[in-house]
Amino acid sequence: MILKAYAKINLSLDIVGKRDDGYHLLEMIMQTVELHDEVILTERTSGISLSCDKAYVPVDERNIAYKAAKLIMEASGLTSGIHIHINKNIPVAAGLAGGSTDAAAVLKGMNAMFSLGLSHEELKALGLKLGADVPYCLEGGTALCEGVGERITKLKSFGGHVVVLVKPPFGVSTKDAYGAFNLEKIKRHVETEKLMDSLAKDDLNGVHYYSRNLLENVVIQSYPVIKSIKQRVVKTGARVTLMSGSGPTVYGIYENKETAVRALDELRKNGNEVILTETV
Ligand SMILES: C[C@](O)(CO)[C@H](O)COP(=O)(O)OP(=O)(O)OC[C@H]1O[C@@H](n2ccc(N)nc2=O)[C@H](O)[C@@H]1O
Ligand SMILES: Nc1ncnc2c1ncn2[C@@H]1O[C@H](COP(=O)(O)OP(=O)(O)OP(=O)(O)O)[C@@H](O)[C@H]1O
């Protein structure tokens, strides 16, 4: 079974509280982009094995796709085994939910492949055990995500917009990004309702005005280059520019493909990985 595991960008990320276990309560708008990993599932007699076309991705129990297979096997009592192969196209530790989306694909794929009969809600509950972004990855599209990310409200699709992703040559740990954040210092939160209105009207001026990510400033403190990448993305004509998730990927949303294509060479300087994609 071959599955497409799509990346996401954050059109916003607001932090509204903190749980006793250290997890942050969020209000964020997530958007799927066309960029995806390919996850190939093959039945084997027993056990779990994993391979990946990129050497820097772990292929043992540390891989979240491996953990997803283990979890769904335990939850369903499945005795057959599985081989997972990942063709990795999504940059790693990038704020694009690369690992979470592979895990979501394994949960969804194995449920279908072995007719395990788990409901969508049951899959989401299993996904949440693996990571806060997994329930959204099972859903996809344009969505408001609350709680730690698991309370999902589907929104009118903001699909069809041209996006350029700019990933500088380093990763950011999600844990460190949240760890550096101080809620008491925040004076102005994201105007999520207004952003949702702008998205529903496909109003790029409004999206530009209201899209915000509260992790952006804390991550820029450690990696100031993210700020200059944002400025460069704006200069190439992007209508909306923001850091995705816990970073370091910065994205630009462009009015049309021609402007985006012209931006690619300029943004590729300084060792950045640059990917042309679109919202879906
Ligand atoms: C930054 C985002 O990608 C935005 O969508 C997510 O909030 C992160 O989701 P994720 O990578 O699936 O996160 P997890 O793997 O569950 O958690 C990694 C670490 O991030 C922090 N974390 C994560 C989610 C959340 N709502 N609050 C947090 O404080 C915790 O310290 C946790 O140990
Ligand atoms: N299937 C996987 N794909 C990519 N990275 C994985 C995978 N499984 C485990 N990892 C490890 O997880 C870490 C985070 O990578 P990932 O790409 O999931 O981060 P991210 O894009 O920032 O995710 P998020 O946006 O959900 O925080 C990396 O250090 C990587 O080695």
From TrEMBL:
Sequence ranges assigned to domain GHMP kinase N-terminal in this UniProt record: 63-141
GO biological process terms on file: isopentenyl diphosphate biosynthetic process, methylerythritol 4-phosphate pathway; terpenoid biosynthetic process
Gene: ispE
Database matches in PANTHER family: 4-DIPHOSPHOCYTIDYL-2-C-METHYL-D-ERYTHRITOL KINASE, CHLOROPLASTIC
Lineage, top ranks: Bacteria, Bacillati, Bacillota, Clostridia, Eubacteriales
Protein name: 4-diphosphocytidyl-2-C-methyl-D-erythritol kinase
E.C. numbers: 2.7.1.148
Binding residues for ATP: 91-101
Record bears the keyword Lyase: no
Pathway(s) served: Isoprenoid biosynthesis; isopentenyl diphosphate biosynthesis via DXP pathway; isopentenyl diphosphate from 1-deoxy-D-xylulose 5-phosphate: step 3/6
Reported function: Catalyzes the phosphorylation of the position 2 hydroxy group of 4-diphosphocytidyl-2C-methyl-D-erythritol.
Superkingdom of the organism of origin: Bacteria
Coiled coil: none
Active site, UniProt feature: 8, 133
Keywords noted in UniProt: ATP-binding, Isoprene biosynthesis, Kinase, Nucleotide-binding, Transferase
Domain called GHMP kinase C-terminal: residue spans: 195-272
Record family assignment: Belongs to the GHMP kinase family. IspE subfamily.
Catalyzed reactions: 4-CDP-2-C-methyl-D-erythritol + ATP = 4-CDP-2-C-methyl-D-erythritol 2-phosphate + ADP + H(+)
Leader peptide range in chain numbering: none
MF (Gene Ontology): 4-(cytidine 5'-diphospho)-2-C-methyl-D-erythritol kinase activity; ATP binding
